[in-house]
Amino acid sequence: MEPVTEWIRHRFPLAENVSPDMVEQWMKENRERLLLLDVRSPAEYQVSHLQGAIRVDPETTNMGELVKTLGLEGGGADPAVVCYCTVGFHASQLAQKLRNVPGGNTRETLHSSTSIYNLEGGLLKWANDRKALVDSGLQPTRLVHPSTELWAQLLRAEFEAPGDVAQ
Questions:
Q1: Per the domain annotation, does 36 fall within a domain?
Q2: Does the residue 34 lie in any domain?
Q3: How many independent structural domains does the chain possess?
């Protein structure tokens, strides 16, 4: 998995990474200041996601509208935003776009003290590290939809959701 995460770090240098262990700690200690954004397809999200995560379409381009929808506009609280996807590509892309939204006090700008991160290694690393996931019914699960055959190779076989991974 390290070559993939290194490539993603290089591809998205403005996306700050955070480890699964740190996110797990934040979820336990400071959940009210944490906003989890799942940047995957509805089918992937339905199989599993981090509890409390909000799904964001990977093709989202209107960052001003997204900031407004998520309640991140200027003048509010300063949550830590953690974006994640299967391995980190789409999440890093979104994190970098969000970091480029200007700070200020208009309704479509990001609060200047908001911290934005990419979950390093994405949901595959999270699952491989045996961290908590829930399914669409909010029931605990260990299964992950790996998105592609390539990413499935990075996931322990015991965690791969049954069915076609190609989309």
A1: yes
A2: yes
A3: 1
Confidence grade of residue 38 (pLDDT, cut at 50, 70, 90): very high
Which CATH number do you get for residue 123? 3.40.250.10
Cα 123 from Cα 109, distance rounded (Å)? 28
pTM of the model: 0.89
3-state secondary structure of 111: coil
Mutual angle of helices 89-99 and 2-11, in 10-degree steps: 30
63 membership: H or E segment, kind and range: helix 63-70
Strand partners, 18: 119
Give the CA dihedral 27, 53, 50, 76, nearest 10 degrees: -20
pLDDT, position 102:
64
CB atoms within 10 A of CB 39: 28
